[in-house]
Amino acid sequence: MVNTTDMRLNVFFIFLVTAAISGCSGITVSQDYEKDVDFAAFKTFIWKVDPEARQDDESEMSPLVATRIRNAITSELKAKGIVYSEISPDIQIDYNLKVESKISSSNVGTTIGYGAGGYGHIGGVVISTAPDIRQYEEGTLYIDFYTSDDLKLVWRGISSQVIDKHEEPDKVTQQINLNVQKILEQFPPKAKAAR
Questions:
Q1: What is the pTM of this model?
Q2: Given its phi and psi angles, is residue 159 left (phi above 0), alpha (psi -120 to 50 degrees) or beta?
Q3: CA–CA distance, 112 with 101 (Å, rounded to integer)
Q4: Helices 63-79 and 169-184 meet at what angle, rounded to 10?
Q5: Are the C-beta atoms of residues 189 and 40 closer than 8 Å to each other?
Q6: Quick check: 161 and 25 in contact, CB under 8 A?
């Protein structure tokens, strides 16, 4: 015979594991681009806005974070054969970081209590449900590619991830590197096969 208390605890354990897995936020990426651009022709780049000139304009990120983003972009593009050059650059690159406070709620949060009965009383299990609400910070990183001759936006890569603003510097660097890597894995855009 199946013990109903053990069965309920097993169901609760499975619920907790499922909630923990679904609650782990990874990096979500996307891209948008002009279809008629020859992205393979891009071999050199410069920053669209001079890093020194935009120091006071980086309300969403400290100059330290901005430097980490630029270093990550430079490294990832170099691996793709695109290098920084102020002499006739093919593209100009800009980036932006937006941090938003968000609230998530699940329809059901579960609490289980178990009580043993005293003399002449029967014990029982109590299960109550209530919405689970939490506040978190989501960081969205944008990387934009503009043609140098007419400053036309031709490619945008975006990543979103739940972040902790108070992480250690090494952890922040690691998160930035991973986000930039995931964004630029999409570049150059792959041509879709005709159907």
A1: 0.71
A2: beta
A3: 31
A4: 40
A5: no
A6: yes
Q: Could you write out the three-class secondary structure of the chain? A: CCCHHHHHHHHHHHHHHHHHHHHCCCCEEEEEECCCCCHHHCCEEEECCCCCCCHHHCCCCCHHHHHHHHHHHHHHHHHCCCEECCCCCCEEEEEEEEEEEEEEEEEEEEEEEEECCCCCCCCEEEEEEEEEEEEEEEEEEEEEEEECCCCCEEEEEEEEEEECCCCCHHHHHHHHHHHHHHHHCCCCCCCCCCC
More confident residue, 53 or 57: 53
169 Cβ partners below 8 Å, 6+ apart? 64
pLDDT band at 81 (very low <50, low <70, confident <90, very high): very high
The more confident residue out of 11 and 123 is 123
Instruction: Round the average pLDDT of the chain to a whole number and report it.
Output: 80
Q: What is the pLDDT of residues 146-159, one digit of tens each?
A: 999 999 999 999 99
The model's pLDDT over 93-118, given as tens digits with 9 standing for 90+, comes to: 999 999 888 887 666 555 665 656 55
